[in-house]
Write a structure and sequence with these properties.
The protein is of the alpha+beta class. The chain has a single domain, classed as CBS-domain, CATH 3.10.580. Helix content is about 35%, strand content about 20%. The protein has a 3-stranded mixed β-sheet. Strands 4-5 form a two-stranded antiparallel ribbon.
């Protein structure tokens, strides 16, 4: 059985807590990503933020484009380790209705499991 480390995406966008909403949305659009990990100044994972959350907050005028991500980051998220069975992580992704599962080692993000990656892996294994 494949491990998370064998299938995870190794190239992905991250943002810092001190980044502002406006630029973060621009980066997410440029890199075609809907959810990103948020790191602190020591490059440790502290949460995730979604494009949907940011646009909704701006539309409802709950957020300001100059507001820092730290104020609104979702600090409740699930993670994975590279030695785990990737199917188990895919199940958690679905159970917790998450779009991404950051793969962490000593608090640092080293990879990413995404919904798209899970679908691609299942299609690859079926065909």
């Amino acid at each position: 059985m494949l491990t998370v480390g064998e299938v995870m995406e190794r190239r992905f966008l991250t943002v810092r807590e001190t980044d502002r909403i406006g630029p973060v949305l621009d980066w997410m659009d440029r890199y075609k990503t809907r959810v990103v990990p948020v790191l602190n100044d020591k490059k440790k994972l502290v949460g995730i933020i979604s494009e949907r959350q940011l646009y909704r907050g701006l539309f409802l005028q709950e957020y300001d484009p100059l507001q820092v991500i730290e104020d609104i980051v979702n600090r409740q998220f699930i993670t994975a380790h590279q030695e785990e069975n990737w199917i188990q992580v895919a199940k958690r992704l679905l159970i917790y209705n998450q779009e991404i599962v950051p793969v962490v080692e000593k608090g640092a993000v080293i990879g990413m499991i995404t919904q798209d990656l899970v679908v691609d892996q299942f299609i690859t294994k079926i065909i």
